[in-house]
Each structure stands twice: as C-alpha cells, then as structure tokens.
Amino acid sequence: MNRNPHVAVVGATGAVGIEMIKTLEKRNFPVGKLTLLASARSVGKKLKFKGRSVAIQELKKDSFKGIDIALFSAGGSISKEFGPIAAKAGCVVVDNSSAFRMDPDVPLVVPEINAADVKKHKGIIANPNCTTAITLMALYPLHKAFRVKRIFASSYQAVSGTGAKAIEELKRQVEQIVKKQPVTKEVYPHQIAFNVLPQVDSFLDTGYTKEEMKMENEGRRIMHHPTFRASVTCVRVPVYRSHSVAVSAEFVKPVTVKAARKILLKAAGLDVIDVPEKQEYPMPLHTSEKYNCAVGRLRMDCALNNGLCFWVSGDQLLKGAALNAVQIAEELLK
After folding, report:
1. Active-site option among 143, 243, 293, 309
2. Record: fold of 6-128+321-333
3. Would residue 234 show up in a list of annotated catalytic residues for this protein?
C-alpha cells in the first residue's frame, strides 16, 4: 500500500461522505490525492479539503484507475455495482453499506475489536451497521472479560441515520407544529417531530426489522462469537445526531458493576460517564461530533442471571460510519 495513498470518497456529498472528508482531514490521514465521486447531479459542486476546493466527479466504471483506497457511502445498490469494479482495479474498498457485511469473503471490522481481520480482505472490507458498532464498543470489552450469552436491547436512533433529507424533515415539522401549520411528511411514514417510531428499516417475516437483526448477525461476525443472541427493538427518535442504546446483557461468568466499570474505563474509544447522583450519564447531545462513544447507567440486571444493564451513546455518523471507515483505512496503512 502506498504510504501517501490516492483516496476516493464515493457518495461524497451525502451526510456520511461529508464526515469522511472531515475525518480524513482531522486525523491527518496521509492523503496523497483526494478524488470525490458522486452521482451526475452533484458534478461540479466543490467540497473543501485541507483548505483547498475539490470538485465532485461523476462515479463511473472507470473512476478507480490509480486509486488506492475508496471509502464508499452511497447506498447498497451503488456498492454492489461499483465495489467489485473498484476492487478489480486494484483499489481497496471500505464499504459503509450493508451490501457485503454478511459475505464470508469480506471482513466486517470495528478496529477496536477485530482489527486483525483487515488483513484477510480480498479487495473489500465492510463497515458495520451504526447501531451495532456503537453497542459493541461497550459490549465487547465486557464480553472479553465475562463472555456474553445474549442481550436484550432497545435503540434510540437519530434521524441523521436516514440521511440529510430526514434532518430537514424533523426541522420542518418542528417549525410547522410551532406555527400551527399542517405537518408534511416525505421521508418517514409518520410524523417524527414530538413522536417516536418503533420501526427502523423494513420488516421481515418474523416481525423483526432488518436493522434489528443486524445486531445479532453482525455482532457474531465482529466478535467471532457464533452463538451470540440479540433481541432488539430499533426506534427512531426526534434527535438530530447520535444513536443511543439501552442494553441488558447476560454473561456466562459472574459480573459485578465494579468489575465492569474497571474494564470499561480501560476500553479504547469509550468514555465512562456514570455519576447518577449528579445526573451524569451519556446523552446524544453530548456525544455528537465526538469520536468516542460513551457508556453509563451501569447496574446489575434484576431480571437476568449474571446480567448487567448499561446505556451507550455514540455519534452514528462518526463511530457508526465515517470514523470507523477511516480507522479501517489507517489499519490498511500499518
């Protein structure tokens, strides 16, 4: 791998694409050259990188010649079509969509957990689902110490997880309600302002949504734990940025709050904010635009054996997407 790689961002104008560009700059990733790719309608737009303006180019089949690393965040269908083309052109793809996550030939990586899996790539590496990544930042260190059997979890997912249009929808609806105007909706099936929607992604025959099953399916691959089980309810909440997850985890070995806290305090990429008597706990407002996830509300689970409850919050555009992708790229250079 080139020490100063030629990097492409595919889907550069989207909410995650913009964060990828910012993250490359903030982390001083040694970008030799940056190419920004998007659909034809974005061509000619310019985005800033290290004080320079970089023009958007149209994503085409021949866009990947000479590119070393391509960070994809343009949706599953684009990844399925262009990911293999980019890999064939000799480029390493870090894909943010769900297109390749369950492909046995594609490593699914959270660098704090399974960085070594990066080495097994055959041209494509997958970034996990944002809610899964944020949950595992707190769960995996505990799993290493106590071995997790299963979790029950509910997510509180920000609208920016759906994209820029959803952020606009929440802003617009709040304004409409304040001004006593009729509420219009385009992105979500129901009003999201002052409401919560117990649906993220489409429903499966089981009654779970696709998003809810990602925690178990992707969690097994990332933690190398094929018997891990997760029963999850994913909920969209009227928050702009940062997902939160309430988790009840059952472990094989006896667990205590004191032992769990000691482990979480040492965990990479994780802050412990847990002072209930001072009303201190992680909140989406405070984890937004931060690289680290935060865990708190640690307590023994009174309904499970060897159970621990915790609450974790993290910026799903960063650890759940852009930051994780750039960290994978950093592993490629090591």
Report:
1. 243
2. Rossmann fold (3.40.50)
3. no
